[in-house]
Automatic annotation (TrEMBL):
It catalyses: glycerol(in) = glycerol(out); H2O(in) = H2O(out). It is a multi-pass membrane protein. The keyword Membrane applies. One of its GO terms (cellular component) is basolateral plasma membrane. It comes from the Eukaryota. Its main location: membrane. The chain crosses the membrane at residues 67-88, 121-142, 154-178, 205-224. This is AQP7 protein. Keywords: Membrane, Transmembrane, Transmembrane helix, Transport. CDD domains: MIP. It comes from Chordeiles acutipennis.
Length: 251
């Protein structure tokens, strides 16, 4: 909701109600609040690529994968529907009721990502791959208690800042989906809500890239962290064998 509404305000406001920075801030704030809302309950994956990676690496049972994916899909789809309702009048005024994917009054990019016309499909794929590598690598570093992990309670904020940084530096080529759950459900919503099948044809059938590239990027991020950081972490001192005086509880 925070991310899509910030895009809607920039596009429909014709630059008078925000710029590229405000979009990045909107997504960063949304991620931070999402982690605070779901972190203690489900781990707040919020990202299908990360959930799948957890299953592949053995950190999450495969039987839980459908529940996570369904939750992510419903959350993202509902967010798109919410922003569509919130800005319906502005959408209609901006496009004169003609919801298009490309052209001077295109509005589909409010909800899902599309590559820049100057970027090749291979270049766009690499952009999504690299941005997701940085996302997952950053998340692992933030939560790495064996290294120099973040202070307890600051992980959500730092992850939001991480997403902000990715948007600031890697958002031009593709709009940095870096998350199949963030891109596919709103795309399906736009196909239903009036933009039609063009949302899947645009950008040389771009729609599959925000699914495949973040998934591969997430796995690569885990591998990089394991090879270059985790294997070199100093083991946590085991003081369990030390004899300690018994703890006496006093009233």
């Amino acid at each position: 909701v925070f991310g899509l509404s910030s895009v809607a305000q920039v596009v429909l406001g014709r630059g008078e109600f925000g710029q590229h920075l405000s979009i990045n801030l909107g997504f960063g704030i949304g991620v931070t609040m999402g982690i605070h809302a779901a972190g203690g309950i489900s781990g707040a994956h919020l990202n299908a690529a990360i959930t799948l990676t957890h299953c592949i690496t053995g950190n999450l049972p495969w039987r839980k994968l459908p529940a996570y994916l369904i939750g992510q899909f419903l959350g993202s789809f509902t967010a798109a529907a919410t922003i569509f309702g919130l800005y319906y009048d502005a959408l209609y005024d901006y496009s004169k009721g003609n919801f298009t994917v490309t052209g001077p009054t295109a509005t589909a990019s409010i909800f899902a990502t599309y590559p820049s016309p100057c970027v090749s499909l291979l270049g766009a794929f690499f952009s999504e791959f690299l941005a997701t590598v940085m996302l997952v690598l950053g998340i692992l570093i933030i939560h790495d208690e064996k290294n120099n992990g973040a202070l307890k309670g600051t992980q959500a904020l730092l992850t939001g800042i991480l997403v902000l940084g990715i948007g600031l530096g890697m958002g031009m080529n593709t709009g940095y989906a870096i998350n199949p759950s963030r891109d596919l459900p709103p795309r399906i919503f736009t196909a239903i809500a009036g933009w039609g099948i063009d949302v899947f044809r645009a950008g040389h059938y771009w729609w599959w890239v925000p699914i495949a590239a973040p998934t591969l990027g997430s796995l690569a991020g885990v591998l990089i962290h394991k090879l270059f950081i985790d294997f070199h972490n100093q083991p946590v001192p085991d003081s369990g064998n030390e004899k300690r005086p018994p703890v006496v509880e006093t009233s």
